[in-house]
Amino acid sequence: MRYVKWGLIGTVLLSLFAFLHYTLPRTDIVIITGVDIKLEQVSPNSIFWANSEAGTVTADGKLQRDVRFINTTKANGKPRVYRNEDTGWGWPPYFKLDSSNLHTEAQGLISTRDNPQWVAVRAYGWRSEFLSIYPNAVSVWPVEGPDVRIIPWINIVILTLLAAFAIWLWRVWVRFKERRIDPVLEDAAVALDELDDRADAAADKAKGLFGRMVAPFRRK
What InterPro entries does the annotation carry (predicted)? Predict the structure, then answer.
């Protein structure tokens, strides 16, 4: 039972970590090498898109849609591709409604490694070549160089609030347990002890009665 308990707790914590890792923004320092608008087919991996249900049905019944992309290169030379979609009023609550403006801003910051214009790209989500999913860019702005350090104040504030909420929830649970659950368990334990004592007394009484019944036969 203990393994089941810790297994459930581990599953909940792992799910919470994955949810926060996907949802909270991260900032990368990159060079923008180009921007694209591609016609993408709406497939099962579209659950990671901001508007997975939107698109145009083709003659063969497939759902397709135009998706903006921002192509970048990191300081170590590895490519990094972002999608650029509006989140609207849905989840995650970034309320991004300016993907076309962001497309224009990114286009104006295009540079090369020979003459780099380093930029910070704030985005959320995951990048997986196997699943063809991309993080969604939220904002871009120029920075002085690849070694600029961006302090994630948004994440710090959100995680601090979540930690405070978790501590408050735990204290509420402890107080509820002390006031409601522990007294019931104590009463149940006392009742079980009393029942056990009665059972022992009944067993002793039955043993004595049996002993008196067989005593005459033993004397013979």
Answer: Phage_phiNM3_A0EWY4
d(CA 44, CA 128): 14
Q: Check whether the bond before 146 is cis (ω within 30° of 0).
A: no
- Give pLDDT tens digits for 22-80: 999 999 999 999 999 988 877 666 677 776 555 455 545 567 788 899 999 999 999 99
Question: Would you say the C-alpha torsion 206, 207, 212, 213 has a positive or negative sign?
Answer: positive
> Token pair of 177, please?
């347990």
Q: What is the mean pLDDT of residues 150-163?
A: 94
d(CA 120, CA 153): 15
How far is the CA of 52 from the CAs of 46, 65, 121, 132, in angstroms? 5, 9, 23, 14
Amino acid at 120: A
Q: For residue 211, name the pLDDT band (cuts at 50, 70, 90).
A: low
Global confidence as pTM: 0.75
Q: Rounded to the nearest 5°, which phi and psi values hold at 146?
A: -70, -15
Maximum distance among all Cα pairs of the chain, rounded to whole angstroms:
117
- Cβ–Cβ under 8 Å, residues 65 and 38: no
DSSP 8-class letter at 204:
H
Q: Which whole-number Å values give the CA distances from 109 to 7, 66, 101, in the listed order?
A: 48, 22, 13
Q: What is the model's pLDDT at position 1?
A: 66
> In this structure, are strands 26-41 and 56-57 parallel, antiparallel, or unpaired?
unpaired
Task: Quote the tokens at residue 154.
Answer: 């948004």
The predicted pLDDT at position 121 comes to 97
